User: Fold Guanylate cyclase from Latimeria chalumnae.
Amino acid sequence: TGAQGLLVLDEYGDRDYNLSLIYTTVQHNKYMVLAHFDTSKNATTIIDNHPNFIWKSLPNDVPGEAQNLLLIFKKQTKTTLFCELSARSAFVLFGHRKYRKEHKEKKWSHIPADLITPLERNENHISLKIDEDKRKDSTEKLRRAKYDKKVVILKDLNFKDSNFTISQKRELNKLLQIDYYNLTKFYGTVKMDSEIYCVTEYCERGSLRDVLNDKISYPNGTFMDWEFKISVMYDIAKGMSYLHSSKLEVHGHLKSTNCVVDNRMVVKITDFGCNTILPPRKDLWTPPEHLRQDGVSQKGDVYSFGIIAQEIIQRMETFYVEVCCSISEKIYQVKHYQNKNGRLPFRPDLCFETAGEKEMEVLVLVKSCWDEDPEKRPDFKNIESKLGKIFSNFHNESNDSYMDTLIRRLQLYSRNLEHLVGERTKLYKAERDRADRLNFMLLPELVVKSLKETGQVKPELFEEVTIYFSDIVGFTTICKYSTPMEVVDMLNDMYKNFDSILDNHDVYKVETIGDAYMVASGLPKRNGNRHAVDITRMSLDILSFMGSFELGHLPGLPVWIRIGIHSGPCAAGVVGIKMPRYCLFGDTVNTASRMESTGSPLRIHISQSTINILHRTESQAEYEVRGETFLKGKGVEITYWLTGLKNEKYNLPTPPSAENQQRLQAEFAEMITTSLQKRNATQGK
Assistant:
């Protein structure tokens, strides 16, 4: 049963009809039935044997002698029926395909995460860049991965919800259909670590902005000449021309960091087709009409191309203007332009004065791309055509074939590569020396050399060394009344001055732990009996400095330190793999620490073994006998107070007496409170 009732089909699938032949009478001008035709029987039944129509008699029913009206009518009816059925079938098929296409565009599925293999940053990547150049790169770090045996880039879409809207799914499906030489291939999206990533083609040389910044690898004079710059602009124009004629129609985020360069120096455009996912941007590449009102347009892409072209020509910062450096100020000037008193729009600088005839054509084209009126900007078909003609003219003028140009460029590249290797070698040596200096600040020079040459440091026994320990008296109480940053600033101010004093003596700073400061002499480089002399001289210098040192956040509060010195045998070596440290081991280290902890404020507590070594040297140390002192783990020993060196003057602070020391320790918290009140009163004024 069909829409018009019961349908009868013959054995061939044709529909059977009962048709009536109707004519208009001449006499009464009425419709009358002349005959019936049954298609199932292929038979005609005459109803009116004496019809009243314009013919005197019925036409001849013999084919060939005269046209049979009924046969003609039957054929026409079957033809009309066939055409009607064909049209309806085509309409139904078209509608079904359209429905399937729309249904497919509304569906989107991520690439399975197990098909994506993230790569380390240094894997499958060879570069002449050193760390200093990498720090100058302005582009964000992108994740590289392996997908379908190809290296790809994973770009974070900053899209937490994996459920895309219908419009976003349609845009992503359109992206999958884009396949052009100057556009990066889009493979899909993947959900990894609760983030949604866009999977796109990887280009080895990075962004166009990186290439323009690297004037060592791509110098202006030999490599990136005018011909090459025009070819770069031509690549971008071809890619954008294709993109504008595709279903995506517009880029919306075009800028030099979204143009990437592959290993054949072909420029490709990326980050297109995500306008429904990515938020609208407002930067130096954004056209004025979209700075004023959010949106994207093809003419806006042309403006962005003009800004990129100026970057390529000048090889300066983006939107370079000699009179303005602030990015926010540049955007403000572009956005708030008003056409008053013939004032020109705010645009980047172009050097028209020094340009030749062919270069002038390019500059005029670039200038037209950033016209204030979007309708006056050329489209990319026009830009592509003009750049193609200009590029061809460069070849015609030089009378070089493409092969000659290729050979010339290879020669230039070879010479530039030699220059590049030389420059990189110098930079590498400078970086190596800087790394060595940094290592020498963390480890002794002999230890660093041993690590570089053999990869290990053998522990070593030193028969005689002198070790220094000091700490701050009342440090815990000071921390109680100070903020963490004030404590850090206090220690930094104090120990920076200690470090500068160490530079004048043959000593090695072992480490600082909290307020404890540890120094040794006689290792890792042996110096005979001088180790005791150097430590005593350094101790006297440090104590002299403490006589004038004052805390910045606690003015007027006395700062006391205790110093302990001991000499004896010691073992030293590098311990650990991560963050290796040069450590000292042995009873000498423990005894030196006990000498410090049993000492007194503003005193240098020195052991008998160190006094014996000083006696063996020409230095005449001045000291006082303290008497018997109990040292944990050692028992009772005779110890001394170092007071100076003969014929040498030191401005040492006066140590407190035992009574004053006990009183000051009891009143120390009150003194800190008074100092804080003075500071607050001073700040209030």
Notes: The chain has three domains: 18-105, 113-124+137-399, 448-684. Residues 113-124+137-399 form a domain with the Transferase(Phosphotransferase); domain 1 fold (CATH 1.10.510.10). Residues 145 and 151 are 6 Å apart (CA to CA).
